[in-house]
Amino acid sequence: MGLFSGLMGHASAIDLDQLKQEFAPLLIPGESIEAGFKVIRDMFVFTNKRLILVDKQGITGSKTELVSIPYKSIEYFSKESAGILDLDSELKIWVRGMHEPVSKKFGRNDNVNAIYQILSNYVL
């Protein structure tokens, strides 16, 4: 789904080797990257210790905000799966101290189940 999926706000998986190189300076000893997903310019990066949200801002995307959410701060999460006529799935993550959930849409061919399993493994 690549570019079209990104333009529609859907997430697509990012190559683990690319993520490991890009995020190596941010990781602590014993921390490893499990998976990463890109939505247009923003990213969800899952490690074995936390969720890193990457928000690229501005027209050029030169300003980047990184938000680290320890799994212990995640109160609960939900997945709304794509139906017969609905091509989208949506993932919502409620974080302690935040009034609104972190929410992202995924296309039918994007594997939202992989993210759900990662969250289940580390949050539950």
Overall tally of domains: 1
Helix count, DSSP H or I runs of 4 or more residues = 3
Order of helices and strands: HEHEEEEEEEH
Major beta-sheet overview: 5 strands, antiparallel
What would you say the CATH architecture is?
Roll
Beta percentage is: 35-45%
Please state the structural category. Answer: alpha+beta
Overall form: globular
Overall pLDDT score: 81
Q: How many β-strands, per DSSP?
A: 8
Strand ordering within the main sheet? 1-2-3-4-5
Contiguous runs where pLDDT drops below 50 for at least 5 residues: 1-9
CATH superfamily: Bacterial Pleckstrin homology domain
Fraction of residues in H or I helices: 10-25%
Distance between the termini: 31 Å
Radius of gyration: 14 Å
In CATH terms, what is the fold-level topology?
A: PH-domain like
CATH class category name: Mainly Beta
Question: How would you explain this protein's 3D organization?
Answer:
The protein has 124 residues and is of the alpha+beta class. The chain has a single domain (2-123), classed as Roll (PH-domain like). It has 3 helices and 8 strands, in the order αβαβββββββα. The strands form 2 sheets. The chain has a 5-stranded antiparallel β-sheet. It has a 3-stranded antiparallel β-sheet with strand order 6-7-8, with helices on one face. Strand 3 and strand 4 form a beta hairpin.
